[in-house]
Amino acid sequence: MKSALMLFIIVVLLLKTVYSQPPPPLKQCIAQVGTSDQCKCKMTDDGSVIDITSLGVANAPKFKDVEGSDGYKYSYDPCNSFSEGGCQDSAMCRTSGELQTTIGEAGHMEYQYDMSTKNVIVAYIAREGPRIAVSEVELICDPTACKPTFEAIGVQQEFLYKFKLTSVCACANSCTESGPMNCHDGSGGAIGGGTIVIIIAIVGIVLYITAGVLYQKIRNNATGADLIPNKDLWKSMPGLIKGGFLFVFSKCLPNRARYTSTN
Fold first, then answer.
1. What is the pLDDT of residue 18?
2. 198 and 175 in one domain?
3. Burial track 212-222 (b if 16+ CB lie within 10 A, e otherwise)
4. What is the count of structural domains for the chain?
5. Among 18, 149, 161, 235, which has the minimal tally of Cβ within 10 Å of its Cβ?
6. Residue 9 counted as domain residue
7. φ, ψ for residue 149 (rounded to 5)?
8. β-bridge partners, 109
9. Backbone dihedral angles phi then psi of residue 7, each to the nearest 5 degrees
10. DSSP 152-179
């Protein structure tokens, strides 16, 4: 009986200890909004930084008149303000026919961390008439997206707009104010299989000639043209190549009919 009572007390104390612990703080990305660092934020868990400063274009939208799934057109600059028609000092501008409306102001930015997608969301705020408009841009990390892409999902509900920005700069510690620190999009600079074969062949020939020359020099005390390894083979190479071509072409050409004249 005492053992059961003691076990019950221990379980109660353990449960109390577990549930009395404060919950871990929510993961956030904190930015110094209103300063020159407003276009980057720091994660509260590991101190990593997401910097979209370099995605901005001075005095013009980085993305202009992007067609949204809602039928509107959107112009957007991640960091700098721009003016376009009726949109003045905007970060996000919506165009409907001849009417242009600012739905996100540069400098009025808030950062959020979406636990479900594991992505940072930048919210641009603007006053649209008597109401506050919010444009949420989800930053999607793609280490190969050296050139950013912008997708306009558009209006979700009244005064709420959603977008997606895919870039290497959406990845932690990947960009500075000058741009990506290390970005390879795979579109250039990759060495193909044929190039690798050619490189291996050239290196092999160079090593063969070098080793052959050294061998002839040291072992046979050769000089001049005699330093070339297998000299007789290389001298006969043009004739062998010519013979090979003639053999191939003779097989490819049609057989010629031969006639014998009889009198």
1. 45
2. no
3. eeeebeeeeeb
4. 2
5. 18
6. no
7. -125, 150
8. 124
9. -65, -40
10. EEEEEETTEEEEEEEEGGGSTT-EETTE
d(CA 129, CA 126): 9
204 shares a domain with 87: no
- Answer whether residue 229 is part of any domain: yes
Who has greater pLDDT, 200 or 69? Answer: 69
Residue-number span of the structural domain to which 131 is assigned = 29-180
CA distance 215 to 222: 9
> Does residue 257 form part of some domain?
no
Question: Can you tell me which residue has the tokens 């997708």?
Answer: 151
For residue range 137-147, list pLDDT tens digits in order: 999 999 999 99
Q: Is residue 42 part of a domain?
A: yes
Rounded mean pLDDT of 179-192? 64
User: 23-74: per-residue pLDDT in tens?
Assistant: 555 788 888 655 567 899 999 988 999 999 999 888 899 999 999 999 999 9
| Residue labelled with tokens 């993305």 | 63
- Phi (first) and psi of residue 124, to 5 degrees: -100, 130
